[in-house]
Amino acid sequence: MFQNVKEFIANYPTESPKIRKYENYIDFYESIFLKFKNQDIRVLEIGVQHGGSLELWKALTTPSSQIVGLDILPQTKQHEDERVRIFVGDQGDERFLTNVSNEAGEFDIIIDDGSHIPFHQKATFEKFFFENLRDGGIYVVEDCHTSYWRDYGGGLRKSGSFIEFSKTLVDEVNAWHGQRKKAEEVSNYTKQIRAIRFESSMVIFEKAQMTAPKNIELGVETIDVKTLPVAGSMGGIMNRLRKVEFLRSLVRRSPFLWRLMSKQIRRPD
Ligand SMILES: C[S@@+](CC[C@H](N)C(=O)[O-])C[C@H]1O[C@@H](n2cnc3c(N)ncnc32)[C@H](O)[C@@H]1O
Fold it and tell me: Does 55 sit in the ligand 1 pocket, CB within 6 Å?
């Protein structure tokens, strides 16, 4: 078993099935598979093509780990063996996704390298992230550059793209802190996404059962923060406004006011 993706690439026999991945994905996969080192895990990859990436997942996991592929091409069935099972169908077909979701079981890592069509990526994520990814699992969507390509319905900040959808999930992760949302109004995303990572052309989601954030407080206070004057150029004004929270918040919200007032209170040398 390789633990090093670069070693795998350097030693990949030329006659083996073709694999094509962006270079930046490689370092990321190394760190992710390292997280599951020596564990028997289950990996799902949407998009099999020549089968080269299946070889990579096999090399990075224990011999008892299982790999499931999904592809629209029936020819990809040739890559089935004792460790690999392939489902043939269209990831854009809701019924097919449901069948796979019901039959394939749970996974530690799910990788979407299929059609790269943004609404397929979203529908596939919404199905498999909730129903088939284990807690502590990682969901990777590759080749999200299509979110910026017009012939995939994309474009910069184009609504409906997978990147734009993923950006909205940043707000869901932080929904516990929103002043408009009550704790019970947080979404299933808020409750199940621990982290989102954006890399060039790739979005990665980490799953965990999340609860409302709690502070951990240890040790003794070393500064009397309640009575201590606020330091810095704005200290004077913020101290004078201490009892008028509305005005303090006004200053905090406005870079213009902040600049204006900090100039006004500049102390003589
Ligand atoms: C980029 S290739 C996968 C490459 C492979 N993961 C690798 O790294 O070597 C994309 C694959 O997705 C499959 N595909 C395209 N549209 C699909 C769809 N709607 N549903 C399922 N698979 C699809 C294609 O047949 C192709 O084999």
Answer: no
